[in-house]
Amino acid sequence: MASMAASARPILGLALALSIMAVVPSVRAEIRQMEVRSDSRSIIPFDDFGFTRRGGLELNVSGISFSGSADLALSQLGFFLCTPDAWLLVLRQIRDLDITCALQSDHVRIVYEFDRLDPPPNPSGVPVARSTSFGVVNLTDQPGHFTLLFANCLPNLRVSMSVRSAMFNLPEPSRRAFLSAGAAPLPFIYSLLFFAYAALVIAWAAVLFRRRAALFRIHYFMLAVVVLKALNLLCEAEDKSYIERTGSAHGWDVLFYIFSFLKGISLFTLIVLIGTGWSFLKPYLQDREKRVLMAIIPLQVVANIAQVAIDESGRYSSDWITWKQVFLLVDVVCCCAVLFPIVWSIKNLREAARTNGKAAVNLMKLTLFRQYYIVVICYIYFTRVGAYALSNFISYRYLWTSVVAGELATLAFYVFTGYKFRPAAHNPYLTIDDDEEDAAAEALKLDDDAFEL
Question: Which pLDDT score is estimated for 349?
Fold first, then answer.
């Protein structure tokens, strides 16, 4: 039974790491610093990276200490690189008892085994202390998506250490590129998207200037949303470019998080305002609509705090999964919250339209927003689920395509919103002729179900 438990322990550790790797695609990589404190896990994942034709890993570990086991067979401890496909082969070897430790598998790439910490024999007989730190550079010409892991195959042994890892590609012999293969095109892609949104800002500003007579306050708010999105993309492009060159964001991530926060709040607010007809149909919001807006703002604060923790701590830190769950929960709540005011407004006007001709006109205006309501749902679903699912089915080299898909969907949503709600004297979303008011009320009485969502 003891042998079975010992063999099951590394299997469970490897399975856990494999499950994390399977559901979390890698789109960002940089120099990582992690602290391990009294950790007894058999497998500790640190970082993953997509190598191109030539690349490498620079690993620096300090403050190494052990506790909880008297028998230190240091050859059972060490760092290694492994691809997702190799995980399955390693698991099979351990399950079949061909090996007892992942470091023994011929399917992994050994980076450093801890038996090298022991000093060489001293001819003088004076004892020499074991080293507590090391640094190693491991180059590879094998392309693939590799994960850096630490194996601890000694039961009940707790390990403490500080780990600094830098994984990189070598497009030139003397230049390191710290972005993974799947993220390498992102600086260029974000730059193109910035210019696309900059053009959108100019085009929208020109529309507002030419149609000043038909402007509403919400049109200026829409301009502000597009400006914030463009600035967000500009900071993201420079952030990724700086990481590619140096391995760290060096302040650009702060600007990115600021504009990301402002963009998120403004976009959700815009959807609520358009969906309730504010400025188009009425100059005010009802109390419950105001409460939705007041709930979205603190939720967006929490979501952005979670996003910062996710990006800065690394996907394999102890709190990463917790922050990821918080972010997903808050994001889902925000996405659902922006839909309620649309439903409320249509329902209220639908009830009032039975006896009020003017309300019937307003109802016809709001039911025209049904198309927008459906588009909002499709946009939310695709950017939150579709793009994520895409990243799980494509090669590590093309993970940037999931980012492109999500950003193109967002751009299409912005263009659709601007086109449908542009300032125009005869826009069906904004006006209905007075002659149609009686016909609208009569139509509602004859077919009350015509305006169901």
Answer: 60
CA distance 351 to 332: 30
Rounded to whole angstroms, the Cα distance separating 242 from 248 reads 7
Q: Model confidence over 269-295: pLDDT tens digits?
A: 898 888 777 776 667 777 777 888 888
CA 48 to CA 243: how far, in whole Å? 15
Question: If you search the block for the tokens 């085009």, which residue do you land on?
Answer: 203
Domain ranges of the chain: 2-119+130-177, 186-451
Q: What is the pLDDT of residues 153-191, one digit of tens each?
A: 988 899 999 999 999 999 988 889 999 999 999 999 999
Q: What is the pLDDT of residues 222-266, one digit of tens each?
A: 999 999 999 999 999 999 999 999 888 777 778 888 898 999 899
Q: How far apart are CA 269 and CA 379, in angstroms?
A: 16
The angle formed by the CA atoms of residues 20, 21 and 27, to the nearest 5 degrees, is 115
Alpha-helical regions (H) of 382-451: 387-391, 400-420, 436-446
Measure the CA angle with vertex 225, ends 221 and 228; round to 5°: 135
CA dihedral 378, 381, 386, 391 (to 10 degrees): 140
User: What are the C-alpha distances in Å from 152 to residues 13, 85, 138, 291?
Assistant: 10, 21, 20, 52
* Rounded to 5°, angle at Cα 182 from 179 and 185: 70
H-helix segments, 314-386: 320-337, 340-352, 357-367, 370-381
Q: Are 276 and 285 within 8 A, CB to CB?
A: yes
Whether the model pTM is above 0.85 = no
Q: Which CATH architecture has domain 186-451?
A: Up-down Bundle (1.20)
Q: Is 423 exposed, middle or buried (0-12, 13-18, 19+ CB in 10 A)?
A: middle
> How far apart are the C-alpha atoms of 249 and 240, rounded to whole Å?
7
Select from 424, 184, 165, 96 the least CA-distant residue to 314: 165
Structure letter (DSSP) for residue 99: -
How far, in Å, are 113, 260, 380 from residue 418 at the CA level? 59, 20, 17
